[in-house]
User: Which sequence fits this backbone?
């Protein structure tokens, strides 16, 4: 690659040949191949289940037919590469989930405030400067704890009221059954008395 890149170690992450066909990992060929794709992956996104398609892809072995090669710097060399390693480009996007941010910075999940460690963007409007930051996901706040407590209490109350209502209903049914039974026995007694009176 030349003297400017002396000492650098790069990792090939992809590329395209002169006709625009992308390189595919796992195809050990210095050229193009037609692959039958069956499930979702790189270079294929099926529109429905069971959908298959044969597509041309470029093998993962580099050759003179490549027009674009994507590289990742694994080890820095002696000189700076202009426009790449000589300036610091901040990450525009960063982790959003609370546990993942805590893992990156080695924070204490209970004590440290994770919201201070998210990636912020500086936006200038006229003379004023604003900062935009993403909402931290799965963040357990005081509000969330209060809401959880309230939901738990409501659930317990519902269980209690339903139990009481069921007990009331059972009592009412048993009372109704007793009354029906008493009415039936009284009716049977009256009939027996009437029968005895007619015999005399």
Assistant:
């Amino acid at each position: 690659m030349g003297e400017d890149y002396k000492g650098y170690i790069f990792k090939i992450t992809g590329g395209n040949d002169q006709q625009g066909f992308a390189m595919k990992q796992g195809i050990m060929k210095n050229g193009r191949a037609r692959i039958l794709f069956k499930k979702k992956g790189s270079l294929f996104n099926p529109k429905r289940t069971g959908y298959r398609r044969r597509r041309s892809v470029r093998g993962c072995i580099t050759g003179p037919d490549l027009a674009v090669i994507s590289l990742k710097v694994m080890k820095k060399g002696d000189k700076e590469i202009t426009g790449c390693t000589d300036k610091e480009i901040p990450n525009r996007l960063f982790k959003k989930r609370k546990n993942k941010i805590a893992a990156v910075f080695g924070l204490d999940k209970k004590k440290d405030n994770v919201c201070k460690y998210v990636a912020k963007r500086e936006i200038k409007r006229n003379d004023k400067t604003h900062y935009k930051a993403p909402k931290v996901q799965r963040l357990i706040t005081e509000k969330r704890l209060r809401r959880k407590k309230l939901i738990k209490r409501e659930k317990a109350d519902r269980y209690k009221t339903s139990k009481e209502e069921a007990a009331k209903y059972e009592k009412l049914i048993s009372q109704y059954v007793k009354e029906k039974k008493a009415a039936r026995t009284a009716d049977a007694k009256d009939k027996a008395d009437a029968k005895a009176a007619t015999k005399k």
